[in-house]
Amino acid sequence: MMSELFDIDDKIIVISGATGILGSAITAYLAAQGARVVAMGRNTAKVNALIEDIKGTRHKVFPLIADVTDEQDLVRAKLKLEHEFGKIDVLINLAGGNMPGAVITPEQTLLDARIDEINKVMELNYMGSFLPIKTFLPLFLTDLKGSIINISSMAAQRPITRVLGYGSAKAAIDNLTKWLAIEFCNKHSAELRVNAVAPGFFLTEQNRTLLTEADGQLTKRGNQIIANTPMGRFGNPDELFGVLHWLISDASKFVTGTIIPVDGGFNAYSGV
Ligand SMILES: NC(=O)c1ccc[n+]([C@@H]2O[C@H](COP(=O)([O-])OP(=O)(O)OC[C@H]3O[C@@H](n4cnc5c(N)ncnc54)[C@H](O)[C@@H]3O)[C@@H](O)[C@H]2O)c1
User: Fold this and answer.
1) Interatomic CA distance for residues 216 and 234, integer angstroms
2) Average of per-residue pLDDT values in the chain
3) Percent of the chain residues past pLDDT 70, beyond the cut
4) Residue 264 CB–ligand 1 contact under 6 Å
5) Contacts within 8 Å (CB) and 24+ apart, 33-37
6) Pairing mode, if any, of strands 90-93 and 62-65?
7) 20 Cβ below 6 A of ligand 1
8) CA 209 to chain centre
9) What residue ranges define each of the domains in the chain, with the CATH number in brackets?
10) Predicted local distance difference test score (pLDDT) of residue 208
């Protein structure tokens, strides 16, 4: 009973941002669980290197090259998926991230905000999930079921100083997640679910210099974050495996339109 409930064997799972810090760990985990994982990335060499690193799994990870903000790339990717598998079961939209130009530094004000940079971060984090969902939707309609998992951030629900564009883009992802959950139930199938995971702070290459000094000590900002995280530490990539596995499996089959924090309590904490 237990193993059937959480069974993800043979599921066809497409992951964007697969070669990133969180993406590579998640790709390896899901492949090790017997899923048929499609590693989507922009850089062929990086995708192949990731696949080379993942050995001994039942299904070899399948490479897919596409920029998530380029509709034509995604249409080509969809045709490849159609040809190889005929359908997909899961899409995890991991490609995304903050961008330095879309940040308001302590010395700046809103008057210094750069519209082109805000647009760029919106395009990657919002359109970079919206477009793959729209383009790959027909591949879910074959079976009239599936699980789409967006990756939000704590910056969406709890605005974080400096982080202007990225926080707005991830807040739009939260809204899109709920909107699509309803839309798909109404127009397609109640078994086509859409949820989001909102990670708290995970130490990665994107934020390492912001959170830690060269000697590994926390910066002032790193200390502020830890002080507001009841568990008192950053997350590790493997701490996302459980929630993703659950959202992919039938164990979550009555769950749609949710945004699930994985944040050591950051979202719950008022600071006092
Ligand atoms: N690390 C954290 O603490 C944290 C916290 C909350 C949310 N997140 C989110 O988790 C996701 C993964 O983050 P990460 O920490 O692994 O970052 P990362 O930078 O290591 O991974 C992001 C991946 O997306 C890819 N990418 C960027 N632009 C792309 C494009 N146009 N088309 C295709 N791929 C593109 C990058 O090449 C990279 O492989 C992101 O959406 C990020 O916003 C991370």
Assistant:
1) 13
2) 96
3) 99
4) no
5) 33/8, 33/9, 33/245, 34/8, 34/9, 34/10, 34/58, 34/59, 35/8, 35/9, 35/10, 35/11, 35/59, 35/90, 35/248, 36/10, 36/11, 36/12, 36/62, 36/85, 37/13, 37/61, 37/62
6) unpaired
7) yes
8) 22
9) 2-200+236-258 (3.40.50.720), 208-234 (no CATH)
10) 85
* Alpha carbon distance 93, 182 (integer Å): 19
Q: Are strands 90-93 and 192-199 parallel, antiparallel or unpaired?
A: unpaired
Mutate to test the pocket of ligand 1, among 15, 21, 22 (most ligand atoms within 8 A of CB): 22
Q: How confident is the model at residue 16 (pLDDT cuts 50, 70, 90)?
A: very high
**In the chain, what is the straight-line distance between the N-terminal and C-terminal CA atoms, in Å?**
43
Tell me the pLDDT tens digit for each residue of 118-159: 999 999 999 999 999 999 999 999 999 999 999 999 999 999
CB 96 within 8 A of CB 21: no
The pTM is what? 0.97
Confidence band of 207 (pLDDT split at 50, 70, 90)? confident
Ligand 1: does its nearest atom lie under 6 Å from the Cβ of 157? no
Check if 126 is active-site.
no
Distance 265 CA to ligand 1 centre (A): 22
Q: Would the CB of 137 count as within 6 Å of ligand 1?
A: no
Q: Furthest-apart CA pair in the chain: how many Å?
A: 58
